[in-house]
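Researcher: Checking consistency across runs. Here is 2,3-diaminopropionate biosynthesis protein SbnB again:
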Amino acid sequence: MTDLPTTVTASATSGPHAVRPFAVISGAQVQQVLEGREKQLVELAEAVYRLHGAGDSVNPPSYFLRFPDRPASRIIALPASIGGDVRVDGVKWISSFPENVRAGIPRASAVLILNDQDTGYPFACLESSIISATRTAASAALAADRLSRDRPRPTRVGFVGTGLIARYIHTFLAGTGWSFDETGVHDLAADSAAGFRRYLEQSGTTGRITVHRSAEELIRSSDLVVFATVASEPHVGDPAWFSHNPVVLHVSLRDLAPEVVLASANIVDDVEHCLKADTSPHLAERLTGGRDFLQGTLDDVMAGRVTVPADRPVVFSPFGLGVLDLAVGKYVYDDMVRSGELHVIDGFFHELRRYG
């Protein structure tokens, strides 16, 4: 499908170039709109990938703000534009400050700005850590389905890294009809692994839940492997761990050594985006001097241009596209308009007459 959900917009005045009132949408409102809509959001992600594959988008490289005195921290800008029925421009501004975890607050925080395509004026600011996690999980659930259609459907899932993203991916898998006989958990932090296990038990997860002592143990006993770590360099280097040919959702992008990548069938969300910033596919390109190890994009798979082999591990490495953030953000905005709960900041734009 290429059509996106019908959208409803608000205008300050009538006319094709009216300036919309500026709205602020809180994290609580975002969560209220998105919760329980996993199937619709996976369909939205599929439609966005198709629009992006057809060229109806602009998705330039992400911009990294780094700090010499805080090398572990960064803030990233993801500008983008999406066409179709969404028709919105904008930017996600997302920070990653690992030291936050010690203070008991999440590592990442984010806002999303939506801009009108007719005037360029921003018309909404949304809390976006939930949007970011949602679009990541929707993309992962879509890939899990599409990449396993020509092989036995996975019955054992394993999560390497057990933070917010892992939780959202599990929620989206469950919300789109997946169930597993076994769920494996591995995290370098024992308390995180234990906390994720408690979450799984409380969420009604069926089948056996196992906390594994090592990544190798988890990988070898999983048909669907989810990497959702904060690894900055590869820590999994033996292709033999994947000899049973699992589907791998390599969401954190830097866990796999080039040797594992080269022994697998590789699918990405966008080739140019993924082969940069020392991701595992980027390291594989450096090692080989080429891109022959890539089979194509997820859109290629959905369109039938690429067939996923069943006799090799298949690795999905999504860099994360700003167009997905925009589509989910616009989905939230339109729902708030329909419900009449949009919080507009009166008079946010003061100078709206060219000559005063």
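Researcher: Does this match what you'd expect to see?
Model: One thing to look at in this run: The CA atoms of residues 33 and 335 lie 7 Å apart.
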